[in-house]
Amino acid sequence: MSILVIAEHDNSSLDQATLNVVAAAKAAGSDIDVLVAGENCGAVGEEAAKIDGVNKVLVADNAAYGHFLAENVSALVAEVGKDYGHIFASAGTNGKDTMPRVAALLDVAQVSDIIRVESEDTFVRPIYAGNAIATVKSADSTKVITVRTTSFDPVAAEGGSASVENIDSAHDAGVSEFVSEDKAESDRPDLGSADIVISGGRGMQNGENFKILEQVADLLGAAVGASRAAVDAGFVPNDMQVGQTGKIVAPQLYIAVGISGAIQHLAGMGDSKVIVAINKDEEAPIFQVADYGLVADLFEAVPELESKLKEVV
Amino acid sequence: MKVLVAVKRVIDYNVKVRVKPDNTGVDLANVKMAMNPFCEIAVEEAVRLKEKGIASEIVVVSIGPKASQEQIRTALALGADRGIHVETDEEVQSLEAAKLLKGVVEKEEPKMVIMGKQSIDTDNNQTGQMLAALMGWGQGTFASEVAVDGEKVNVTREVDGGLMTVGLKLPAVVTTDLRLNEPRYASLPNIMKAKKKPLESVAPADLGVEVAPRLSTLKVEAPKQREAGVKVEDVAELVDKLKNEAKVI
């Protein structure tokens, strides 16, 4: 049975997370098609056709899909995907919003946020904020899957030569509309795919103080994240949250500054290759997972880190 | 308008989770249970809608064993008006939960269903979206703001990259994110009053739903534990280790 992968994109370019999803799909089977649903998204279709290992790209270009409203896109995915053995999407907010609707429309279960493919019907996923790892087998004829993209190495963006087909079907459920969006513009790398992440917690005291993290981030080409405590306190916006219910990151280097290390935070960064913790409380749980711990006042340590880094990078 | 809130009984947020030695699941024997934190936020939002005069009645529903009535009572103490307990000792997966909720929704005909975006046990993040699909309704998932305006609701959603606001026709499903509100605590007089509020119990069969899991859990394991590393003396040593030992900068 073939596999349908739902492309993640912004109507103009393909989100690299799609490459990780294709990698996960490849672990479950070989015959992979990609669906690009959007508005004026032809360029994305062209880009998807170059992904290594993709057989066919289906492009549904319609105003109803322009803002990826789940009510509309799910009807399309259910229609296109019903004869596939698997439908794979990223476990980003679009996938989380849309795929359970697809599963319900097809009357099948969904397996959320998988970190490994054991076989074509068996998948591994974290539960209880990553404090337990479940191996789950699906009995459904179409398996609806969302993928934790940091757990799969991306396939090559180039090298494929898939055919591109247009799909005419327009599903406008007529129950929802796009009103507005407020997206942070940043020159820094994306939190979910950055090689280095530096995050601040409650210990930062206010949003203004995140500047000292940003200066270090810019030296290292890093993304800036935050703990739930820092977001809840209003220091920084929600899209910076790393944790069980925020972003899941697994960079080469994660620097936790003024973060105590609640299990919900560890769930979002515990797979990082190297973890550094800077905290003045030597009992903070973050030190139990940190490769390198520095017990220090962050307001002295971070500026010093910046100046020392200037000497070596 | 009538608002339906779905709540789930889960392991308490602060309890350390332990995997059973036989790898069949997580040990829940003698473990403190509580209302799922996202569901508390859902109850709070409904109560605020009632305080603003937008909601006229709040019906709280929970699916699960007898003990789930504790969480329904908690919601009643926080301001819900009456409870419905869908009683089952079977494992209820998201799709079945959505079908059971659909049965309740068809009977109660609420204008809005508010529920948590995910439960902190299975971390699935599915049931609200599935219910909305089964009803053919719009959905405002991961809500950080809910603004009802006549027959419409604007929901501001926490999405990758920031915030997005959608306008939904009512009835609709809203699922809560962390920053929608800060739930209140139940006062003692309200806890006492909640004991007298109506609580009806129904069986899945009464709602025409057969609970039959599609997914089978083959095993549950503890995650690989990270070993604590070393403490460095100062920033200079840290930079040296990162450069020469870990080689990540």
UniProtKB/TrEMBL annotation, chain A:
Cofactor requirements of the protein: FAD
Domain (Electron transfer flavoprotein alpha/beta-subunit N-terminal) ranges: 3-182
Keywords tagged on the record: Electron transport, FAD, Flavoprotein, Transport
Transmembrane segments: none
Top-level lineage group: Bacteria
Assembly description: Heterodimer of an alpha and a beta subunit.
PANTHER family noted in UniProt: ELECTRON TRANSFER FLAVOPROTEIN ALPHA, ELECTRON TRANSFER FLAVOPROTEIN SUBUNIT ALPHA, MITOCHONDRIAL
Descriptive protein name: Electron transfer flavoprotein subunit alpha
Source species: Tamilnaduibacter salinus
From TrEMBL, chain B:
UniProt domain Electron transfer flavoprotein alpha/beta-subunit N-terminal: residue ranges: 23-211
Pfam families in alphabetical order: ETF (PF01012)
Molecular function per GO: electron transfer activity
InterPro entries in the record: ETF_a/b_N, ETF_b, ETF_beta_N, Rossmann-like_a/b/a_fold
Annotated keywords: Electron transport, Transport
Ranges that cross the membrane: none
Co-factor(s): AMP
Family matches, as SUPFAM superfamilies: Adenine nucleotide alpha hydrolases-like
Record-level GO BP terms: carboxylic acid catabolic process
Function comment: The electron transfer flavoprotein serves as a specific electron acceptor for other dehydrogenases. It transfers the electrons to the main respiratory chain via ETF-ubiquinone oxidoreductase (ETF dehydrogenase).
Oligomer status and interactors: Heterodimer of an alpha and a beta subunit.
Stated family: Belongs to the ETF beta-subunit/FixA family.
Protein name: Electron transfer flavoprotein subunit beta
